[in-house]
């Protein structure tokens, strides 16, 4: 390629959207090292001018629009300005949310269906998201690009005299997912005592469970907080929104060599249990799964090692950056690849 590929990434504000930080900003250095010229701009908010965005869109090889669904008018003018239009998705954006509770939204579904008919390609964080785009636009080029995690040294988590630490990390709005399994956490604790570590921007509100600690989330220390634990958990209610999740929390645990216990929702069985990186459970199965790992340090270590190796081979920042670069090249210049 004689001239460097140029890309305009239009993203959510990274201070409020982890997706922007993890799926776009995380890979900027790798893209630029490959000779791809990248500019990142924030998506216009309601009432803000689109003039700069549309002007820049006409000068680059492709526009990568992240996740947020927009009006039909905005789709049409974006499509008219962009030579190639790529959509990045890591959530079930066709669903609505009210007070953090997902619901079927006719408006979001219509916006999703309309937008996907005008994109040239899509970068999908999970197989379900890819499947949904294909249902709307069977011929659109899609690439499965998971949200990546760093490749870290393997830490040997050996059994200590102090109680084992079970960790959950996530946004405050999702702490309710942990609160929902309180009774099963209590049952597991009765069988084999442990300390539950919550890393978030708000503490849980358990009714009676007492063996827990709260650590305020920090980007600079989140992996230290995980690495000092013994088991990572990822409880999820099974609904139309969670089925599109990309198992990012589980991948973080796996990067630190922790075995994972996760709800059998979405991609979890394929990426966790079937790879030997952990256990997936149905409602009511949390106590037995946690007890099985808490009582067997060698099993925890073996499963944790499997997850760590999987991250190194498939989900590390370096591996995913390489995949992303190749996918962008294929979507932007399909006739020359």
First-residue to last-residue Cα separation: 11 Å
Count of all domains: 2
Major sheet strand order: 2-1-3-4-7-8
CATH topology assignment of the largest domain: Rossmann fold
Number of helical runs? 14
Give the secondary structure arrangement, pairings included.
Layout: E1 6-11, H1 18-23, H2 28-33, E2 37-42, H3 51-57, E3 62-66, H4 72-81, E4 85-89, E5 95-98, E6 101-104, H5 106-116, E7 121-124, H6 127-136, E8 141-144, E9 164-169, H7 175-179, H8 182-191, E10 194-200, E11 212-216, H9 222-227, E12 231-234, H10 248-255, E13 260-263, H11 268-273, E14 278-281, H12 286-294, H13 297-315, H14 317-332
Any overview of this molecule?
The protein has a 6-stranded parallel β-sheet, sandwiched between helices. Strands 11-10-9-12-13-14 form a 6-stranded parallel β-sheet, with helices on both faces. A two-stranded antiparallel sheet has the order 5-6. The model has no long low-confidence stretch (mean pLDDT 93). Helix 13 packs parallel to helix 14 (317-332). The longest helix is centred in the C-terminal third of the chain and has 19 residues, at 297-315. Helix 6 links the parallel strand 7 (121-124) and strand 8. The chain has 337 residues and is of the alpha/beta class. It has helices spanning 18-23, 28-33, 51-57, 72-81, 106-116, 127-136, 175-179, 182-191, 222-227, 248-255, 268-273, 286-294, 297-315, 317-332, and strands spanning 6-11, 37-42, 62-66, 85-89, 95-98, 101-104, 121-124, 141-144, 164-169, 194-200, 212-216, 231-234, 260-263, 278-281.
């Amino acid at each position: 390629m004689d001239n460097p590929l140029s890309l305009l990434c239009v993203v959510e504000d990274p201070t409020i959207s982890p997706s922007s930080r993890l799926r776009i900003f995380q890979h900027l250095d790798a893209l630029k090292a490959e000779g791809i010229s990248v500019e990142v701009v924030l998506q216009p908010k309601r009432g803000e001018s689109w003039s700069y965005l549309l002007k820049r869109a006409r000068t680059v090889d492709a526009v990568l629009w992240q996740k947020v669904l927009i009006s039909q008018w905005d789709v049409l003018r974006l499509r008219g300005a962009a030579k190639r239009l790529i959509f990045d998705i890591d959530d079930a954006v066709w669903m609505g949310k009210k007070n953090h509770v997902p619901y079927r939204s006719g408006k979001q579904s219509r916006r999703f269906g309309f937008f996907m008919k005008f994109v040239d390609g899509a970068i999908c964080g999970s197989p379900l998201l890819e499947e949904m785009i294909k249902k709307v636009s069977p011929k659109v080029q899609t690439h499965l690009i998971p949200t990546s995690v760093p490749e870290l040294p393997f830490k040997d988590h050996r059994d200590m005299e102090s109680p084992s630490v079970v960790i959950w990390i996530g946004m405050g709005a999702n702490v309710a997912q942990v609160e929902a399994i309180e009774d099963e956490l209590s049952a597991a604790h009765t069988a084999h005592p442990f300390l539950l570590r919550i890393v978030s921007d708000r503490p849980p509100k358990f009714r009676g469970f007492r063996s827990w600690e709260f650590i305020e989330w920090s980007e600079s220390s989140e992996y230290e907080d995980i690495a000092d634990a013994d088991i990572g958990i990822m409880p999820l209610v099974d609904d139309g929104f969670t089925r599109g999740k990309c198992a990012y929390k589980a991948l973080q645990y796996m990067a630190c060599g922790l075995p994972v216990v996760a709800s059998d929702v979405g991609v979890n069985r394929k990426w966790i249990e079937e790879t030997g990186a952990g256990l997936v459970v149905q409602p009511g199965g949390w106590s037995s799964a946690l007890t099985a790992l808490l009582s067997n340090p060698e099993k925890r270590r073996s499963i944790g090692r499997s997850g760590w190796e999987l991250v190194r081979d498939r989900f590390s920042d370096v591996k995913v950056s390489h995949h992303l670069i190749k996918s962008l090249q294929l979507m932007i210049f399909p006739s020359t690849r």
